[in-house]
H+/Ca2+ antiporter (Enterococcus aquimarinus), 335 residues
Amino acid sequence: MEAFISNQHSVVLFLLFIIFLVILSKSTDILIDRAVDISHEFGISQIIIGATIVSIGTSLPELSTSIVAILKGTSDFALGNALGSVITNTALVLGVGALAGSIPVPSSIASRLFFLIASLFILIFASIETFNLQFLSSYGQLQPMIGIFFLVTVPFFLLSSFIQKGKRTKSKAPQEKQPINKKVLMIQITVILLSAIAVALSATSLVTTVSEMAFRLGISEAIIAGTIVALGTSLPELSTTFTAARKGHGSLAMGNVLGANVLNILLVLGVSIAMSPNGISVPPIFYQIHFPVALALIGLLTYFIFNTKKHEISKNEGKVLISIYLLYMGISFIL
């Protein structure tokens, strides 16, 4: 596959990038849907499904591509993709949602914000080796123990999500459990296996394509992963948030975005860092662009959540978020 991709014309290479991105996104959606269907077959509650399968499933594209990137030795891709997805979800997805309708910010998602702030600060400070201004132009390092710590934290985050979903869900009369259709179950399992294979193959091909594109363009893989790839993997969230906001369900989108952001750090980066025997090297561009932008966006989110006057992201604030995203995209390719 690597030889095939490296021999393609740049236009064909870009088309392959789009194709692999679409396959990754669609196969992930199918895998999640079938996993949810099987969970229903076994009588697992909606709360547990939402707090586990759906929550983790939203980060599956980033997780699969990051694992492949680590196995290929391109840690810049893994770090850029995860952090770029956090920035894209926060700035672009929520910004577009605010322009489309209303994005209420319920106080119940404060726990997710806490996990996001804590994990982001731990990520940044754990990577800094020299605590002076020189770190802005120096490489940092994330040791495997940080990845293990993030992974250990994932169950606690999922548990908090489970508790919050339980509080918001009204008790319903128990429904009579239907017998499991073994034929349908086998079909669903087969679809899951095929989808998992598609995810793995498309993720591998996507990482290879991005590496080739970065080589030809003479820019870092972290830049492409943090901008173009992150945008591509966030398109489903962008679509659902836009639709949800127009239909008056913006608060659900807010919770999903925060949850996806937390898992991008704790799960995606946790796996990536833990899988690297010598840890992950952090290029200076992360201290110059990615980390400051992420911190600025989280600061804005904190203001939105605890602003007692409105409790929602207004259209003007949505414009600010989108402006920050466009600025981030522009600076990333200029520097």
Summary: The chain has one domain: 2-166+178-334. Residues 2-166+178-334 form a domain with the A middle domain of Talin 1 fold (CATH 1.20.1420.30).
